[in-house]
Amino acid sequence: MITLKTPAETAKMREAGRIVAAMLAACRAAVRPGVTTGELDRIAAEILRKNGATSSFLGYYGYPATICTSVNDQIVHGIPGKRRLKEGDIVGIDAGAIVDGWHADAAITVPVGAVSAEAARLIAVTEEALRRGIAEAQVGKRLGDIGAAVQAVAEGSGYSVVRNYVGHGIGRAMHEDPQVPNYGAPERGIQIKEGLCIAIEPMLNAGGAETRTLEDRWTVVTGDGSLSAHFEHSLWCTAEGPIVLTAPHGQAAVAA
Ligand code: MF3
Ligand code: CO
To answer: How far is CA 187 from each of CA 3, 145, 178, 193, rounded to the nearest angstrom?
Structure first.
């Protein structure tokens, strides 16, 4: 069941989204060789606490941390802990916040110190794929338009799109209907209505699209050990175009 959100409801989600953006900005600023993923988790938790918000992830099906940190061949859902980031790594940081019962969810991938040209290109292309997907989130278009745009950027750059994990509706729950795949055909899938709130989250692999889950039952890695990058924003679809709920405070929330 897809629920469309009112402006008052999306105001709460925007507040949650500003907090998510602050968590990600603080984590990005803390990323350097030698920092542990657990330290990033504590930085994010402190921002939630100061803002009187809670984590969308902590306790979700037993998930044990505030954020997800996914390093190198880890695609998503890496659990923060004692792992120390080292020069040349890339780290995906995924955060969600709840304000008055309303969720927002976003992710970035960050280079640790100097990274290879190939790692930097994978990060840039994944962010561009998200940007192009957001641009398709127009009332009257269809979810296939979003997926096709993301897929075209990814595959046009020689990367593969992860299919086993997809974006999602968001609101009173972190994961609501509809599913938002990062692949598809233009003009196919459900039509985008005013008030639809979705998280678009391309996961691009430098190698094949296959995935595998580690023994910890959370961390998803690439089947072939290749690098993977992940970016995500939560959006509100309006007649004037998509509004990025997880944009930083003071930054235009209206997509270009
Ligand atoms: N941001 C992730 C998503 O959109 C959620 C992390 S899963 C959790 O699917 F278990 F960590 F919450
Ligand atoms: Co998400």
So the answer is: 21, 6, 16, 14
- Lining residues, ligand 1, CB within 6 Å: 57, 60, 63, 68, 77, 94, 96, 105, 199, 201
Nearest bound ligand to the CA of residue 232:
2
**Separation of 82 CA from ligand 2 center, angstroms?**
24
Using one digit for the tens of pLDDT, what is the confidence trace for 187-206?
999 999 999 999 999 999 99
The answer to whether 33 touches 86, Cβ cutoff 8 Å, is yes
Cβ atoms 21, 248 nearer than 8 A: yes
The encoded tokens of residue 90 equal 């890339």
**What pLDDT, in 10s, does the model give residues 145-189?**
999 999 999 999 999 999 999 999 999 999 999 999 999 999 999
Q: Tell which residue, 69, 106, 105, 107, has the closest CA to residue 90.
A: 69
- Please indicate, yes or no, if residue 77 is contained in any of the structural domains: yes
- 175 is in which domain, residue-wise? 7-244
Q: Tell me the HSE value of 181 on the side-chain side, using a 13 A CA sphere.
A: 18
> What is the count of structural domains for the chain?
1
Nearest-atom number in ligand 1 for the CA of 201 is: 4
User: Which ligand 1 atom minimizes the distance to the CA of 95?
Assistant: 1
| Rounded Cα–Cα distance for residues 229 and 78 (Å) | 12
How far is ligand 1, taken at its centre, from the CA of residue 77, in Å? 6
User: Domain containing 184 — which CATH number?
Assistant: 3.90.230.10
In a domain, 256, yes or no: no
Pocket test for ligand 1, best of 60, 93, 216 (most atoms within 8 A of CB): 60
Could you tell me if residue 86 is inside a domain? yes
163: in domain: yes
Query: Whose Cα sits closest to atom 8 in ligand 1?
Result: 57
